[in-house]
Design goal:
The protein is of the alpha/beta class and about 150 residues long. The chain is built from 8 helices and 6 strands; from the N terminus they run H-E-H-H-E-H-H-E-H-H-E-H-E-E. About 50% of the residues lie in helices and about 15% in strands. It is globular and about 45 Å long.
Length: about 150
């Protein structure tokens, strides 16, 4: 890919590696090492695709592993797939979606999908993440006072 970008006259274009398969998870260290220090890159955790391939039960574990590896390598992470999806599409939100969205605070970016209520979803996500940033710094929980 780096060679193709150079051939197309875009050698400095950053790369986002979409991690969506078991193979990609297994090869993540090699994917990162292949670009580290030579090319700007980020990682997208395609949680929907991963859940289909690995099973929903393993998603929490795999997400954590990807976040740890990327943090150690100083690689930014995009938290993607079904974040506040029912809010963006139907205008309603569930408690599990709020908790899931809050977990996105550990990533550098959270990606929302399209929908008629996307502006509301962006507002809610911003509110959730700004509150969570007071309690979490990447993988480390901060012991701060709760503001009721």
């Amino acid at each position: 890919l780096i060679k193709v970008l150079a051939e197309q006259g875009a050698p400095q274009l950053p790369i986002i590696a979409k991690i969506e398969t078991n193979r990609a998870v297994r090869n993540l260290p090699d994917i990162i090492l292949g670009t580290l220090g030579r090319h700007t890159m980020g990682i997208m955790i395609a949680r929907g695709d991963l859940a289909v391939e690995l099973g929903s039960v393993r998603m929490s574990e795999i997400q954590e592993e990807i976040l740890w590896v990327c943090e150690a390598a100083h690689i930014p992470v995009i938290w993607a797939t079904q974040v506040l999806e029912s809010l963006a599409k139907k205008g309603t939100i569930s408690r599990p979606e709020i908790t899931d969205a809050a977990s996105g605070v550990r990533a550098e970016c959270v990606m929302l999908n399209k929908g008629p209520y996307i502006l509301r979803a962006v507002q809610v996500l911003g509110h959730i993440l700004s509150r969570m940033q007071e309690h979490q710094q990447k993988k480390f929980t901060r012991l701060r006072a709760l503001h009721w």
